[in-house]
Amino acid sequence: MRRILMALICAASVTTVVHHSAYAGNTLNAPAGPPKIIIDSDYNTLSDDGQLGVMAAQLQAQGSLKVLGITVVSGNQWLKQGVADALKSVERLGVENQVGVYAGANYPLSHDFATIRAELKAFPGGDGYLGAWNTPEPKSDSDLVAPPDGFATHTKVQSQSAVDFIVESVKRYPGEVTILAIGPLTNIALATRAHPEIVPLIKQIIYMGGAIDVPGNTTRTAEFNWWFDPEAAKTVLHLPIKQVVIPLDVTDTVQMDKALYDRVAHDPAKQTIITQLFKTLNGYGFDGKNGFETNPNYTTNIWDTLTLAYLMHPSFATQTVDEWVDVDTSFGTNDGKATGYTSSPPAGLRKMTVVKRFDNPAFFDFYVDLLTRPVPVKLPD
């Protein structure tokens, strides 16, 4: 792998932060003012995207964060299902009047199902997770699957599109908006292509995406978010914006075990609708049988919520590397594969921060605290 070959070069660009104190409520590395964010997500009820939504709402309630809106894109599930889950999420949390849900792209820019099938046949490998492509596309509301506590009853999707909302928000708050890009990058690519004038106005993009020096998950080389729409990923990665990547390199090392799961799902003093849904939707594994509730040795990685943790507490990243990052868009075994260059990058790439390791105990305290707070969230007066 490149990290071995380039060890001496990497050493010059690796920043290691030794972090000794545990998360202590709102005091650890608290930002000077509340950051403004857009959550761009292939949303779900309470897997990693939905968990980030809960955590962000709690931070907003305490005045530490301003969530401008949730822009939904197809990825883990089709757009209509993701929108339905996001609408119920903000309603469940009691923030539907503060956080709008905006529908975005339903299809990748160029990665269609025929290409996917041809690639997987020609180049087998990875875990084969295809997200939305694994299920029939819902054509009407009758095709949607309700969350365990039902659909939203009064919260509606915003009439403005996700792309227009991103453009308008960035122009309204120039230099202030951070985009947490925790799904495929189609919405952001469309927004910046149609309105390139917003590019210098975006404060930063923090991604959960890519597999730099580790194997992929969907394929042998590609991480799911960037594989789902590699053309969009390439478009956005090349933009002259401050960018931070939380790749599989770090998420592979941040794992939930039974003890951590129990801190959220089984603390008798902190039972809420969120902890109940957390147990229902995360306790039985991806197959509905092998999970925390049935197997004491079960583990799973933690993904998207690391982006929010990094935004709020950059010191949680105990090792980072400054690299130029690109993604492959060619048909074949490497479609969607991310590559990091520590020196001599191809023309047109942007140098960015790639997170390699996290302070897991501090993050876990942050994670459990926000997922187990009372619901509905207590909004500021």
Could you explain how this protein is built, in words?
With 381 residues, the chain is α/β, with parallel strands linked by helices. It has a single domain, classed as Alpha-Beta Complex (Inosine-uridine Nucleoside N-ribohydrolase, Chain A). It is 33% helix and 16% strand. It has 14 helices and twelve strands. The strands form two sheets. Strands 1, 2, 3, 4, 5, 6, 7, 10, 11 and 12 form a ten-stranded mixed sheet that branches. The longest helix has 15 residues, at 79-93.
Q: Secondary-structure blueprint of this entry?
A:
Layout lengths: L1 H4 L1 H7 E3 L19 E6 L6 H14 L4 E7 L6 H15 L6 E4 L9 H10 L39 H11 L4 E5 L4 H9 L9 E5 L15 H5 L1 H8 L5 E4 L1 H4 L3 E2 L1 H8 L7 H10 L17 E2 L3 H8 L4 E11 L10 E4 L9 E8 L1 H12 L10
Helix pairs in contact: 3-4, 6-7, 7-9
CATH topology: Inosine-uridine Nucleoside N-ribohydrolase, Chain A
CATH class: Alpha Beta
Biggest sheet statistics: 10 strands, mixed
Secondary structure: number of strands? 12
For the record, the count of structural domains works out to: 1
- What is the annotated CATH architecture? Alpha-Beta Complex
Give the averaged pLDDT, no decimals.
90
Strand content: 15-25%
Q: How would you sum up the global shape?
A: globular
Question: Rg, please?
Answer: 20 Å
